[in-house]
UniProtKB/TrEMBL annotation:
Residues 182-196 have a biased composition (Basic and acidic residues). Keywords: Hydrolase. This is Glycoside hydrolase family 125 protein. Residues 182-207 are annotated as: Disordered. InterPro entries: 6-hairpin_glycosidase_sf, 6hp_glycosidase-like_sf, GH125.
Amino acid sequence: MTGIDPEVLARATEKVRQATGDQVIADMFHRSMAENLPAVAERLPDGTTFVLTGDIPAMWLRDSAAQLRPYLVLCADDPALQDVLIGVLHRQLEYIALDPYANAFNKTANGAGHTTDETEMSPWVWERKYEIDSLCYPIELAYRLWRITGRKDVIDDRFRVAAVAALEVLETERDHDAKSPYRFQRHDDRPSDSLIRDGLGQPTQRTGMSWSAFRPSDDATEHGFNVPGNMFASVVLGYLEAIASEVLDDAALGDRAKELKATIDDGIAQFGTVDHPTLGRVYAYEVDGTGERLLMDDANMPSLLSAPMTGFAAADDPTYLATRSLLLSPENPYYYSGTHGAGIGSPHTPPDHIWPIALAVQGLTSTSADERQQLLELLRDTTGGTGQMHESFHTDDPANFTREWFSWANAMFCELCLSHAGLKLS
């Protein structure tokens, strides 16, 4: 069994129905929570859990953690569900130990995936696009499971090995041009799938932040230092410091995490913010350390919009609010509006396509119950008649969508339902 306890789900569904006053939203929530995890999660003989990203036969470190967020909210009263979630974490940790630069993995060493990419591939690796968030999500998942369940089997020997591997990469990539062994090239018709300079990427100068080859969208970064990814890393390094101190009794590991967090925080403050002519201080999406910066946001999280969700900024922080105003306006080149809605999209999908993930993040970071309700109703009304979330939908025609089934988007809808009902991750 890989699903949620029916009684736990029934209680949560009733709270969602009461909070929204909408039976259709409650029914969509119940269906997604009941079907989403069993459809993607497979318990393996070694006790770990393999999680498909949806319609692709591979496990993304980012997606497999993000898909679990609504289940984390409810797992305290469901020991069997806890076993499944801890199994996901343990598989993620094993994957990081195999290759901390990879973002997606096969269930076995079957050699499936992007085998023609010019990088150091392994038969375990489906794709080796290095993304800073891929190292952050499993550590966050470990911390949340440890805090929520109190179980001693959450943090085991696998965690220390993976944490050290992640730290080594994050530290190295502060000086990518001089120290990084990572190279990546893919020869297809999408420039965003590959890195220039023989796979090294755009030139950068040190900022204190950690470099990332690709964004959470799996598109190549323009300027190397992805600010929302570094925001997430800062928070996660704080989690790692706590685990090192309270569970592992490893002062050296905790000190490394603390030092790296400090340099990243300084880098974000010095290089990752911009003085906007009308909004004041705002966060940039990407910078390169030479003065180049990109003011935008992408639907995939961690995003700038999701900074309160990752724990980097309070929802009422002035710099975050100024940034939010920019992101939810035409100044963000990927903010789209039309007859059926407005929201943030991505260069990863066609123009004028809004992502349900971004709408859910907008609601989850809002301080307004009315805004959350409106966004839930928008998500309800833009499924193209399918009753479930997609990767993206056209602003003027929700029946025109990408990816018929996108497990991560369904999970984000469910998390927004739970948050609106007063059930949320702390």
